[in-house]
Amino acid sequence: MYKFYVIGISDETKPVLSDELKGIISKAHCFSGGKRHYELVADLLPANHEWLEVIVPLKQTFDQYRQVDQSIVVFASGDPLFFGIANTIKREFPDESIKVYSSFNSLQMLAQACLISYGNMVVATLTGRPWENLDQELIKGTPLIGILTDKRKTPAAIAQRMLAVGLTNYKVYLGERMGGERQQVKQLSIEELTETSTVMPNCLILEKLTHIERVTGINENDFHYLDGRPKMITKRSIRLMSLSMLKLDAAKVFWDIGFCTGSVSIEAKQLAPQLSVFAIEKREESRELMAKNQHKFHIPGIQSAIGDFFSFNLEDWPQPDRIFIGGHGGRLHEMMERLNQHLKPGGIIVFNAVSRETTEAFKKAAADLSLTMTDTMLIKQDEHNPVIIFQATKPDANTSQ
Questions:
Q1: Nearest Cα to Cα of residue 345 among 369, 367, 326, 376
Q2: Mean pLDDT, residues 56-75 taken together
Q3: What pLDDT, in 10s, does the model give residues 84-114?
Q4: Does the pLDDT at position 19 exceed 90?
Q5: Residue 367 Cα distances to 113, 347, 363, 400, angstroms
Q6: C-beta neighbour count of 158 within 10 angstroms
Q7: Taking the domain 4-103, which CATH number applies?
Q8: Which CATH class, in words, describes the domain spanning 220-393?
């Protein structure tokens, strides 16, 4: 006897189950699943059964499971091992026996309905997951992307996010209530999807129509910049070396302080699309610049704010493991003190010094905060003044000295 029987079902209003599953259900007393699952299987359950509704967050549901001293039959959508509850049960109850009965998952059924060869499809689940799961596939230009949605990250919200940065180079297949008699499948453009109302559950497949060429080391002349101030941008060679010192491949959260045109944020997200990027700038005109440059280079997923860094509530942002300081308003030491309070242990700060004064100010602040100077480079581009790029690392308490 298994502690958990996890049964995958489609959206059929009257599910057809095998004799084995009927036998399991007839002998069980405790059942579980979402509200929609109960509506689909209620007529199949024995009289006087107990139903434990799966609710998010799952802790309360799992606490109920732990109080049950008999088998629990859990109903799930499609394949319970495909970003489904069976994986969570395995993690939460590692010592309990589990038997899984899978059905087709919704993306499989959508691909089959649209005659799409889906062997190379990459799945970007947004069901309770961050936008970066999709951002990185769009930035990489993945040819075929399957998307699992939720009540907040809806098909329309996904399309609006893509449209905002000019990512209209995908054809959309929309599937609703897959696997049942209420199944609906539509083929749409990104523009059409922004105005399409949908019912849950639903999923999407994005099929790339045209390729967007991406350049590592975007020419500074290609960015939109501040009126009359074309030099107010981190130059290409300095930007690339700064990003190299940030070691973005292993990073998760990046803060860009003083983003101006957004060049560093945009290039960082393009190089490391898994990043959650947060940027702040005091100039109001930079709000439009960031939007224009994100659209021009087709980069989603940069959360920018306009305001004074020293009065901005940094608690609104997740804790960073990488920080780039592009502007400090003459208050570098104070800025670094504040940033150091949020920087994760082992995290990196990169700063470009353009004068002896800022060089000494950064060195002093790093020493006062016990940051380790881990790399330095002097670099000059064309006729511009030389810049010293500093990399400072916050000690990791878990690293032995």
A1: 369
A2: 94
A3: 999 999 999 999 999 999 999 999 999 999 9
A4: yes
A5: 62, 16, 6, 20
A6: 24
A7: 3.40.1010.10
A8: alpha beta
